[in-house]
């Protein structure tokens, strides 16, 4: 199957559906400046984001727009204090964090793949548009269902499990060491983080959209 077999109108309609912002909950920001505070953001636009590709665990660099988004985010965070910065091993998350940390050169950096993007298994590298045009119901299930993994991939439920493990080790450390931490996330790992930290329902998490770069959430850790 090739999207060239479809009309430009059909392709544009597919893009609109895939990009539709189902459910936006404003990113929370604590007014507390005393550690421990946790800062969370999603990476800027990647080449795969721009081309409607299932990225998952494959590497995809930031686009020029993605770098500009990260610069906006960097300006918003420049007056905060970070002791520790955590990212996945994927280049889009690392590039975004590097831009943010130009104002925070003393922050220690760690890589933790419990916050890596959801694995899309056999779908990685394939076109979301092509799948939508072929089977829109299945395409939406891959993006929106809680327990529907791609072949050899992960469900959102599986992502939540590893993100919960990440928080269960990080939050006590933050309280013990009295440190502020910033985390460079991906779409689905940030959904899971927000579900846990904001007590969202499964339904809310599955529909939740977080912005590419540009903005952040912050949480007072008690």
Throw out a few tags for this protein.
Rossmann fold; 5-stranded mixed β-sheet; alpha/beta; 222 residues; single chain; 43% helix
Overview of this structure, please?
Helices cover 43% and strands 10% of the residues. The chain has one domain (3-220): Phosphoglycerate mutase-like (Rossmann fold), CATH 3.40.50.1240. The protein contains nine helices and five strands, in the order H-E-H-H-E-H-E-H-H-H-E-H-H-E. It has a five-stranded mixed β-sheet with strand order 3-2-4-1-5. The longest helix has 22 residues, at 156-177. The chain has 222 residues and is of the alpha/beta class.
CATH architecture: 3-Layer(aba) Sandwich
Structural class: alpha/beta
The H-and-E topology, N to C, reads as HEHHEHEHHHEHHE
Give the name of the CATH superfamily: Phosphoglycerate mutase-like
How much helicity do the residues have? 40-55%
The number of distinct β-strands equals 5
Gyration radius (Cα, Å) is 17 Å
| Overall number of structural domains | 1
What is the overall number of helices?
9
CATH domain class: Alpha Beta
User: Main sheet, how many strands, which sense, barrel?
Assistant: 5 strands, mixed
Binding site for substrate: 42-49, 92, 117-120, 128, 143-144
EC number: 5.4.2.11
Site (Transition state stabilizer): 186
Keywords: Glycolysis, Isomerase
Question: What is the strand and helix layout of this fold?
Answer:
Elements: H1 8-19, E1 37-42, H2 47-50, H3 64-77, E2 84-87, H4 91-100, E3 108-111, H5 128-134, H6 136-144, H7 156-177, E4 181-185, H8 187-198, H9 202-207, E5 217-220
Parallel strand pairs: 1-4, 2-3, 2-4
Antiparallel strand pairs: 1-5
Helix pairs in contact: 1-5, 3-4, 5-6, 7-8
Binding site for substrate: 42-49, 92, 117-120, 128, 143-144
Pfam family, one: His_Phos_1
Keywords: Glycolysis, Isomerase
């Amino acid at each position: 199957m090739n999207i060239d077999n479809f009309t430009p109108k059909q392709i544009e309609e597919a893009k609109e559906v895939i990009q539709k912002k189902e459910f936006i909950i404003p990113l929370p920001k604590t007014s507390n400046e005393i550690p421990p505070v946790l800062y969370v953001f999603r990476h800027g636009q990647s080449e795969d984001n721009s081309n409607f590709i299932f990225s998952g665990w494959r590497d995809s660099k930031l686009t020029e727009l993605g770098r500009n988004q990260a610069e906006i985010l960097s300006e918003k965070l420049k007056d905060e204090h970070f002791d520790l910065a955590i990212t996945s091993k994927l280049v889009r998350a690392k590039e975004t964090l590097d831009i943010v940390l130009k104002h925070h050169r003393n922050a220690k950096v760690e890589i933790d793949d419990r916050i890596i993007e959801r694995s899309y298994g056999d779908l990685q590298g394939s076109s979301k548009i092509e799948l939508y045009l072929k089977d829109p119901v299945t395409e939406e299930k891959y993006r929106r269902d809680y327990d529907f993994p791609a072949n050899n991939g992960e469900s959102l439920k599986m992502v939540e499990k590893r993100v919960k493990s990440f928080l269960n080790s990080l939050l006590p450390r933050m309280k013990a060491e009295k440190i502020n931490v910033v985390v460079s996330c991906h779409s689905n790992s940030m959904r899971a983080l927000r579900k846990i930290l904001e007590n969202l329902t499964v339904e809310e998490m599955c529909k939740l959209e977080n912005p590419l770069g540009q903005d952040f959430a912050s949480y007072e850790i008690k």
